[in-house]
UniProtKB/TrEMBL annotation:
Cellular component, GO annotation: extracellular region
Positions with biased composition (Basic and acidic residues): 208-221, 240-250
Region Disordered: start-end pairs: 190-254
Keyword terms, alphabetized: Glycoprotein, Secreted, Serine protease homolog, Signal
Protein name: Inactive serine protease 35
Bias-annotated ranges (Basic residues): 190-207, 222-237
Pfam families recorded: Trypsin
Similarity comment: family membership: Belongs to the peptidase S1 family. Snake venom subfamily.
Signal sequence interval, chain numbering: 1-20
Length: 415
């Protein structure tokens, strides 16, 4: 039943019932001209201690009421907040100062739109998460863009060599967290029969080079041989449903991280406290992958999303080794954050939140990442501790910065 529901969710466009007639909404990706972020100077910094405490729940951050009172940042503030640190695998670290061009900050406050009242707990009422176990989904887009970070978080592939995740998965605002010195990213792949310790190095290299379709076909043949009999009418495409019978499970292929980049706005020394608006980081892999990755998109207002729905997949800690998918509506939003009540547990932090809209002047629909799941967070509201789930929106400024990290100054004119 779960597989059928997932197929429906990912193959049927969204419809709204208007005056008793189903009408497909014309939801389109709006291309916008991006501000330009120019690198000014790069300085060497001391080697970090890597003694930060990794916390998947943040406390004391600026919440919904606090966001409503924040003034719009000045241009000088943006230059400071969007400067960034780069930490390399050998422990060296640099600071790059930037200059933001082509933007006139809005004088309006960082207001939120009102929505549902807060609830409690990370899973709200009936758990609506889906564990993805069928390899037909695990090894195919969009689920195969989700990755696991060795510090206990999730992330999403955004280029052949880059992963987007939450900043607090690698840095606590004061220092890089323990375990981030030898940071690794796990990509889920099917494990072929006999690919254990025998010829480990050769097996890993050949598996990275083999197209996913060929690996899947080879595994399907092995599954049929192990079953001892073939059922009439069953074809190779159903082999994913027999995975439990053959006890063949996918496994993580771990890749070292070459460098990590985080915005200076995340550092406590700049903001005085962790600023959730800048809770994002990009990891450059030491070795490129051959999977399909997901493009970035500028986050639209929730009213411009089909059903105001967002989607994301990650590796929740309470479902060890399983990829977990969920979707829900956005409840409230500010200029930089989405507030929502998608069921999620720690471990899914850093997941890429995406939605599916039409490409301009085309009939095809495309998924893009429009936010990063920052996690379940406690904030002080009128003297009381209250909680919510929050995601960092990809604004034109954040898009321009992430594009700079991936491509340099090339191909960052619009998004």
């Amino acid at each position: 039943m779960g597989c059928v529901l997932l197929l429906l969710l990912f193959s049927i466009p969204f419809f709204h019932l208007i005056h008793g007639i189903d009408i497909e909404e014309d939801f389109i990706w709006q291309l916008k001209k991006l501000p330009k972020i120019v690198k000014e100077k790069t300085f060497s910094l001391d080697t970090p201690k890597f003694e930060g405490e990794g916390k998947l729940e943040l406390s004391g951050v600026c919440g919904i009421e606090c966001q409503r009172t924040l003034p719009a940042p000045r241009l000088a503030d943006l230059n400071e907040l969007l400067s960034y640190e780069t930490t390399f695998e050998n422990g060296t670290r640099t600071l790059t100062e930037v200059n933001v061009l082509g933007i006139e900050p809005d004088a309006a406050p960082n207001a939120t739109s009102k929505g549902l009242s807060r609830r409690k707990r990370q899973v709200y009422g009936t758990d609506s998460r889906f564990s993805i176990s069928d390899t037909r989904f695990l090894t195919n887009y969009p689920f195969n863009t989700a990755v696991k970070i060795s510090t206990g978080c999730s992330g999403i592939l955004i280029s052949p060599k880059h992963v987007l995740t939450a900043a607090h998965c690698v840095h606590d605002g004061k220092d890089y967290i323990k375990g981030s010195k030898k940071l690794r990213v796990g990509l889920l792949k099917l494990k072929s029969k006999g690919s254990g310790k025998r010829r480990r190095g050769a097996a890993r290299r050949s598996k990275r080079e083999a197209p996913e379709v060929e690996v899947h076909q080879a595994d399907a043949k092995r599954s049929r041989r192990r079953s001892g009999s073939s059922r009439a009418g069953r074809k190779q495409k159903t082999s994913g449903l027999d995975e439990k019978k053959t006890e063949r499970k996918p496994s993580f292929q771990w890749t070292r991280v070459k460098s990590t980049q985080i915005p200076k706005g995340w550092l406590r020394g700049v903001t005085g406290d962790v600023a959730v608006d800048y809770d994002y980081a990009v990891l450059e892999l030491k070795r490129p992958h051959k999977k399909k990755y997901m493009d970035l998109g500028i986050s639209p207002a929730s009213k411009m999303m089909p059903g105001s729905m967002i989607h994301f997949s990650g590796y929740d800690s309470d479902r060890s080794g399983q990829l977990v998918y969920r979707f829900c509506s956005v409840s409230e939003e500010s200029n930089d954050l989405f507030y929502q009540y998608c069921d999620a547990e720690s471990g899914s932090t850093g997941s890429g939140i995406y939605l599916r809209l039409k490409e301009p002047n085309e009939k095809k629909w495309k998924r893009k990442i429009i936010a990063i799941y920052s996690g379940h967070q406690w904030v002080d509201v009128n003297g009381e501790q209250q909680d919510y789930n929050v995601a960092v929106r990809i604004t034109p400024l954040k898009y321009a910065q992430i594009c700079l990290w991936i491509n340099g100054n090339e191909n960052c004119a619009q998004g």
